[in-house]
Amino acid sequence: MIIDGKKIAQSLYDNLAIDIKKSGLKPVLAAILVWNNSASLRYIKQKKKWADTVWVEFKLFEMKPNVTQIELEKKIDELNNNSRINGYIVQLPLPDHINEKSIINKIDPKKDVDGFHPENVWKVLIWDDTGFAPCTPAWVMCMLDIIWEDVVGKQVVIVGRSNIVWKPLAALLINAWATVIVCNSKTPDIKRYTSNSDIVIMATGKPMLLRLDMVKIGTTIIDVWFTVIDGKIHWDADFEIIEKCGSKITPVPGWVGALTVAMLMKNTYRAALLQANK
Amino acid sequence: MIIDGKKIAQSLYDNLAIDIKKSGLKPVLAAILVWNNSASLRYIKQKKKWADTVWVEFKLFEMKPNVTQIELEKKIDELNNNSRINGYIVQLPLPDHINEKSIINKIDPKKDVDGFHPENVWKVLIWDDTGFAPCTPAWVMCMLDIIWEDVVGKQVVIVGRSNIVWKPLAALLINAWATVIVCNSKTPDIKRYTSNSDIVIMATGKPMLLRLDMVKIGTTIIDVWFTVIDGKIHWDADFEIIEKCGSKITPVPGWVGALTVAMLMKNTYRAALLQANK
To answer: Do A181 and B184 touch (CB under 8 A)?
Structure first.
C-alpha cells in the first residue's frame, strides 16, 4: 500500500486553517529571497500559495544577488524587530559570498520557523516544546503519528547520516520513546537492522539500496531522498517491489514539498501563539 | 577484565601537561561557585587539584547562597569580558531562586568549557570542531578510542535516555561512524540489542539491569551511572558476573571524577588555543 501523502498534507492544511481561524490570530510569515536561481523562486511561490489556504499572511522581501553581508544582516535585524512578523525564513541556498551560518545565527530563535537556529536545535534535543523542529524531521514525525498513532517501543532504523536533518529526527524519535538505530555507509550489514524494524527511514541518496529481502511484511518505509539520473527519479527504496510486499510506503513523488510547507505553517502558527502568550 | 580508569586518566593528564607546556600558553580556567552544599565545594577542590597538575591556572569566584540573578549575571558578563580567562564553569546545581538555564545561556560559548551552551550542543551535532562537547560524553568517547582505536562500523547500544548527556553522546558516536542504537525503558526487549553489540553504554540508574546473559563475550561495557542504596553503590551492570565473562568493563568506582575533569582541562586548553588562533 502506498500512503497518499497528498491527502494527508491536505487534511493537515484543512485542520490548521480551522485552528488558525478559531484562534482569532492572523499569523504573519515573511521570507527573505536573495534572487539567485529559479528553483528558489518556485519554492517561495509554493509557500505563498499554501500560506493563503491557512490564513497566514505571507510577506516576501526580495534582495539582489549582489546583496552584501551587512545589508542582509540589516534586513534580519529589521524582521527581528518588526513585531507584526511572527516568523520568517531565509530561502537557502544563499550566494557564495554570503556567510550563511552567521545569517542563520542572527535570526531571532523565536521567529526561526525553519528550525535552523542553534537554540532551536538545542530545544529539540532537550525536548523543550517552545522550540521549532526543522520541517523535514517534523513531517516524518507527523506521518508516523498518523500511521502508528505513537512510536513508543517501536524499532526505528534511520539509514543515512546528515547533520542538519537526521540527528534532529533521531532526537525527536528518542523523545517519543522509540528505540532508534542510526546506520551509515560504514555499517557492515544494514539488512540486519532493516529486516526486523517496524519503521525504516531512508536518506542515503543511493538508488535502490533498500530491497525486497531487507524488510519484513508490514514495515513502514519512509523514503525522503531521491536521486535524479538521466531525468528519472530514483528513490533509496526499491519502490515497486516493496509495494507488492504489502508494506506501507511513503512518499509518492510530489507531496514532499506540500508536507514540508505544512510544517512551516504549523511552526508559524505556533510562533504567533507563543508571541501572543496563548 | 576491568580497565583501569585511573591509569587512563593519569596518562591523559600526563600527555595534556606535556602539550600545554610545549604550547607556551598558560590557560586560565575559572569557576563560579554559589556556596550551597559541601559536595559542590568538594568537586571544585578536585578541579583545582587537577588543574595544577597540567599547568592550568585555576581561579575561583565564590558567591553567597543568597546571590541574586542580576548579581550572578553581572559576574558572567565580567568573566565573558575578561580576556585573561580562557574558559569557565558555573558549578551546578544553583540555588532554587536562580534561573539556571538563563545563566548557562549567558556564558560566552567560546568560554563554555562545560559544553552546556546551546551553541556548543549544536556544534557537536553538526560536527563543528570549534565546539566543546560536555565532559561526560567526551570521556566516554576517549575511553572508546583507547579500547577500540576507532568505532567505525561498530554496533554501540546506549541504554538510557537523558537529554543533556546521552543525545550528545549519540551524536558523537554517529559522527565517529558507529552504528548507534538508543534504547529506553519502553524498549520491549533490551537484550535483543545488548546481546549482539560490540559496545554497551549503561545509563539508567536501575541497579543490575545488565546481566550476564545479556552480553556476548568481549563486549565493552561502559557504565557511568550508579545508585546508592543503604550506603552501598549499585551499578547498572551486574559487575562481578560480567567481569568473569571476560568482557572489558569500565568504570572502577572512583575514577569517573578524574576522567570528567580531564575533559574539562582539555576543553580549557582547546579554548586557549582557539583564542590564541593556534
So the answer is: no
Is A127's Cβ below 8 Å from some Cβ in B? yes
Cell of B261: 575533569
Positive or negative, the CA dihedral B93, B96, B102, B106 is: negative
Q: In this structure, how many other beta carbons lie within 10 angstroms of the beta carbon of residue B148?
A: 17
Task: Report d(CA A194, CA A216) in Å as an integer.
Answer: 8
- Residue A48's SS3 state is helix
Task: Assign domain A6-111 to a CATH class.
Answer: alpha beta
A218 torsion bin: left (phi>0), alpha (psi -120 to 50), beta (else): left
Amino acid present at B141: M
> pLDDT tens, B191-224?
999 999 999 998 888 888 999 899 988 889 888 8
For B196, phi then psi, to 5°, come to -120, 20
Task: Indicate the pTM of the whole model.
Answer: 0.87
Span(s) in chain B for CATH 3.40.50.720: 135-257
Min Cα separation B50/chain A (Å)? 31
- Alpha-carbon gap: A90 to the closest alpha carbon of chain B (Å): 19
| Chain A contact set for B188 (CB, 8 A) | 153
Measured in angstroms, the CA of B210 and the nearest CA of chain A are apart by: 17
Measured between beta carbons, which residues in chain B are less than 8 angstroms from residue A123?
A: 118
3-state secondary structure of B63: strand
| CB atoms A181 and B180 under 8 Å | yes
HSE-up of B109 (CA within 13 Å, CB side)?
A: 15
Return the amino acid letter for B119.
E
* B186 with A193: Cβ contact below 8 A: no
Length of chain A as a residue count: 278
What CATH number is given for B15-107 in this structure? Answer: 3.40.50.10860
Q: Which residues of A touch B164 (CB under 8 A)?
A: 126
Contacts for A143-151: CB closer than 8 Å, 24+ residues apart: A143/A3, A143/A5, A143/A8, A143/A222, A143/A250, A143/A259, A144/A199, A144/A220, A144/A222, A146/A8, A147/A3, A147/A220, A147/A248, A148/A198, A148/A199, A148/A220, A150/A176, A150/A177, A151/A176, A151/A177, A151/A178, A151/A198, A151/A199
Among B123, B126, B184, the residue with its CB nearest the CB of A164 is B126
CA dihedral for A142, A143, A147, A152, sign (positive or negative): negative
Q: Collect all residues of chain A within an 8 Å Cβ-Cβ radius of residue B170.
A: 170, 174, 182
Chain B residue numbers with beta carbons less than 8 Å from the beta carbon of A161 are 174
Q: Which ipTM score applies to this complex?
A: 0.84
Highest CATH level, class, for A135-257: alpha beta
- Stretches where chain A sits below pLDDT 70 are 1, 161-165, 251-254
Distance (Å) from the alpha carbon of B183 to chain A's nearest alpha carbon: 5
Give start-end residues of each CATH 3.40.50.10860 domain in chain A: 6-111
Residue with more model confidence, A150 or B103 = B103
Contacts of A188 in chain B (CB under 8 A): 153
